[in-house]
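Hey,
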Amino acid sequence: MVKGTRRLRPAAWLVVAALAVCWAADSRARTLEEIRRRLRAEAGVGVEGRRGDIPLVSVTVLPGDTHRRLAMELSGMPEAERILRSVAPALRPGGTIHVPRALLAPPLADPRTEVLRLDRDTPTLWRLVTTRLHTRGMGVAVTVRNLQRLNGIVDPRRLRRGERILVPADLVRTVGKPGQMALRISQAYRVRTVRGLERRVRAEDFPAHLRRRLRRMGLWHRQLGPRRPDLVVVHTTEHRGAPFANVARYISRKRLANYLVGPDGTVYEIVPDRFRSFGCGPSLWEGRYQVDFNAINVEIYADTAPGSGGRGIREVQYRALRALLARLRARYPVLHEGRVVTHRMVAVNYRTGMRSRKGDPYVFDWRRAGLPDNSRALDQDVLLGRARLCTDPRYADRVTEGQEAAARLHETL
């Protein structure tokens, strides 16, 4: 025994041993949690878990980040600042906050991911973005910072060659191969003229009362100018037994769709998809009104409403829809699976701000369409208070799970 030290009693040794075991267990738990976190991240960029039915994305706070800056760079919407302040009152550089996926800008919200590596040709994040990624209007600097946030990279100068970077698939440049996704398109009901169908929004395309409200809300500047197809909206004709030829001629005359899926699975081009059609009417999605200007409208000849007596959407029509969506994705890579919605999800009453103006398709099997159930995702416009949930029980069959979840979360914030 060393002079000046005291012999520990047996009870003290037990305490020391217990502390050592606890420390080892805690260290092992931290290591396992780090492994789990990395595996979760590689399964989907930044997905940490859920708050109820709400998918959350893990975002690392960078030096200089404020709630306003995060709102603008992650979502492009200043009104998202209020939500961020609610979910993360304090921002600590290097810390992690959990953001509802619905708040992210469409490219960042893509649940698909690809793993890219820093190599000799792309040794830095900046070089990776400029040579291998689309910025989708965010700009190079903002895209670099968003990749840092989604990958937990506080100091990009410490990255080494071979580092794995998880990137939302919508940002990755790909070479499309449309020839591998051949689909016969009939032009039997194609419109004779596309004059006036450009995807450029003008002030006169909005009712005066809506223009005034959008200016008060600070959303007017987002509405005008050219738009590109970045959304597919699926409709059903709800024709109540009318013959297909009559319905097809009516849709063509009114220019109500870009494509029409017939009862035998034939796909008819009505309005070429580089032009807009008038399928959605009064509508709102992700802060943009008049959704027709950036949507590709697909009508399916089917009766799905309760009491209509129709057969609903047939299997041959689901197969045709899957082939059509594959063709559209080859032409417009931004149209990934998460960018397909139904008419009921985007329809809104411009005067009341109420959802549930439309209900079609009342029955839609997302799995048979080869898609995730996007109706369960948070309705961003309800979450941010731009639209309201319809509480009239007569229209309960028009309300989606995503609208209900967004309304519940909106009430708690």
